[in-house]
Amino acid sequence: MVYKIPKSEARNPENQFEFEDQHGRKYHVPYLQFLPPKLIVSLGNPDQDQEIEAVEKILSYYSTDDMDLVGIFDDGKQMVDWLEAWEESSTASMGESPASEASSEGTGAH
């Protein structure tokens, strides 16, 4: 039997994080678990010093000639706050999974 890869659900509205800029314009990007694998790999596992770069990569990926998602932010704190809200709304995070943490705790590795 051959496994057939199902159609992505990334474009479904319930799988999109909606946010609004200071002028009331609304935007949306897929939740973390619905990002394309190539983008997820490019993000890696950013630490606090790399969070702004991660947000820039995500928003640049979904920006168009008519819509610069990175340009809607005035400072880095706004970007970090956006990342936290996006991760909280997603069912996944860019940090280690609970299973990975439990595994490393059992081996003594940290």
Describe, in plain words, how this protein is organized in 3D:
With about 110 residues, the protein is mainly α. It has one domain (about 15-90). About 40% of the residues lie in helices and about 10% in strands. It has 4 helices and 2 strands; from the N terminus they run ββαααα. The chain has helices at about 35-45, 50-60, 75-90, 100-105, and strands at about 15-20, 25-30. The protein has a two-stranded antiparallel ribbon. A hairpin with a 5-residue loop joins β1 (about 15-20) and β2 (about 25-30). The longest helix has 14 residues, at about 75-90. It is globular.
List the helices and strands and how they pair.
Elements: E1 16-20, E2 26-30, H1 37-43, H2 51-62, H3 76-89, H4 98-107
Antiparallel strand pairs: 1-2
Helix pairs in contact: 2-3
Q: How many strands in all?
A: 2
Number of helices: 4
Q: How many separate domains?
A: 1
Coarse shape: globular
The helix/strand series, from N terminus to C terminus, equals EEHHHH
The end-to-end span amounts to 41 Å
Structural class based on helices, strands and sheet pairing: mainly alpha
Strand content: 5-15%
Largest sheet: 2 strands, antiparallel
Question: TL;DR of this structure?
Answer:
With 110 residues, this protein is mainly alpha-helical.
Question: Features of this protein?
Answer:
single chain; 110 residues; mainly alpha; two-stranded antiparallel ribbon; 4 helices; 2 strands; globular; disordered C terminus
